[in-house]
Amino acid sequence: xxxxxxxxxxxxxxxxxxxxxxxxxxxxxxxxxxxxxxxxxxxxxxxxxxxxxxxxxxxxxxxxxxxxxxxxxxxxxxxxxxxxxxxxxxxxxxxxxxxxxxxxxxxxxxxxxxxxxxxxxxxxxxxxxxxxxxxxxxxxxxxxxxxxxxxxxxxxxxxxxxxxxxxxxxxxxxxxxxxxxxxxxxxxxxxxxxxxxxxxxxxxxxxxxxxxxxxxxxxxxxxxxxxxxxxxxxxxxxxxxxxxxxxxxxxxxxxxxxxxxxxxxxxxxxxxxxx
Length: 275
Prior knowledge:
Blueprint: H1 3-27, H2 30-39, E1 78-79, E2 83-84, H3 109-118, E3 122-123, H4 132-144, H5 156-168, H6 172-180, E4 184-194, H7 197-204, H8 206-213, E5 219-232, E6 241-254, E7 265-274
Parallel strand pairs: 2-4
Antiparallel strand pairs: 1-3, 4-5, 5-6, 6-7
């Protein structure tokens, strides 16, 4: 979600790699938790909201039959409502939201994943919150509202860390600059596809990989892609810019018919990047 996320993600990943041998012997699955937290991105529309592993590229578009591309979606102040799909994918814009989250309420995992991608942008062009700390809390609370709770299928400790990672990855200082520069993200949602097994294993480690592949009827590893145009205004001596990036998000989604009638929720975003 913020540039700081990328730095934090890289630091956590390198720290994990240095300590992997010891941690695997000492506490087993904790390595996996750290890898997932390192890969858990505060999902966003641009490189300020995404990690940037080298070589990451988005998937080709997957067009849902009968999909439409509305000009905009309803969004809370500060979230971008400038969301379209040039490929015609259904990102759930016409659906109600999942609780107080920005995600679509749906039992279709791919539509849900696309709604996560669609909820990735900022829009401070007309709204400038006075308290960046309160704005950070608003963002994190809304995303956590659409995530699996600590009673989820990965175990309480893993879900607790995944949810906490969302809070830890938001910097009020960075938000302050984005607000002051009146940042506007225009999101073009391109597509979704199943994450290939090798990528999933690399993202989350063997334990969670096996949990997902052995529960394909309720856990879905998906990769979404989007093209994002970010516009900022000059702030002090910092020039504004217009930048377009293509981004991808690797995520795990749960849609369990035995829980909440199969309504989908976000387990975590575990990888991705920008090209």
